[in-house]
Design a protein that fits this description.
The protein is an all-alpha fold and 219 residues long. The chain has one domain: MetI-like (MetI-like fold), CATH 1.10.3720.10. Helices cover 82% and strands 0% of the residues. The protein contains eight helices and no strands. The radius of gyration is 21 Å and the shape is flat.
Length: 219
């Protein structure tokens, strides 16, 4: 192990970490938004839309994420839709994550007891108020472990975006190894970079789960 090489590579890995963090932030926020909308559509069985959402969930969950990225980056230009690698990566991760978030939230919505909705109606809450103040908070509390697992899953999935020319941690490592044969140093920094990203995120999400569980269920 040549530590001088490791030190030389650190700035490049720092920039690649920022790329991963940007992608992960977009993927998590976007997939949550998609997941909420899709879960509500399926939970309330919106005519027509519920079936489309079901098809989306099945397609997203049953096709490899790499195939989805290839389709966005190489397939869509054939029909005149072009986007750079980062945009395709962000869209692909939101497409993938949205289906997992939707299923997690749908299970949370189905866990809300009818008595809670009856109580909200008896208090005179409108459907919108019931959704925002009763249904969604309880659904989030129930689904939170699955949602946090999906968030970590999406961060890990950023490691495949190098296949569409996004210079993330994996692409940088492959480039350094192929050009300079410094595999030990490059792989060490690759592992260290993901640990720097994932360990604090994992701890933060665990604390959030504990806090929400205590606030919702008292344990």
């Amino acid at each position: 192990m040549n530590w001088h090489i490791v030190a030389d590579y650190v700035p490049q890995y720092g920039r690649a970490v920022l790329v991963v963090l940007r992608l992960a932030a977009i993927a998590i926020a976007g997939s949550l938004a998609v997941g909420i909308a899709a879960a509500l559509v399926r939970h309330h069985r919106v005519p027509g839309a519920a079936r489309l959402v079901a098809v989306y969930v099945e397609v997203s969950r049953n096709t490899p994420s790499m195939v989805q990225l290839y389709f966005l980056y190489f397939g869509l230009p054939l029909v005149g839709v072009k986007a750079d690698g980062f945009t395709c990566a962000a869209v692909g991760l939101v497409f993938l994550g949205g289906s997992y978030m939707a299923e997690a939230l749908r299970s949370g919505l189905e866990a809300v007891r009818k008595g809670q909705l009856d109580a909200a109606a008896s208090l005179g809450l409108s459907p919108r108020q019931t959704l925002l103040r009763v249904t969604l908070p309880q659904a989030f509390a129930v689904a939170l472990p699955a949602l946090t697992a999906n968030a970590i899953f999406l961060v890990k999935e950023t490691s495949i975006v190098s296949v569409i020319a996004v210079v993330d941690l994996m692409a940088l490592t492959q480039n350094l190894v192929s050009m300079f044969y410094t595999s030990n140093e490059a792989y060490l920094l690759l592992v260290a970079s993901y640990l720097v990203i994932l360990l604090p995120l994992s701890v933060a999400l665990r604390l959030l789960e504990r806090r929400v569980r205590h606030a919702s269920f008292g344990s």
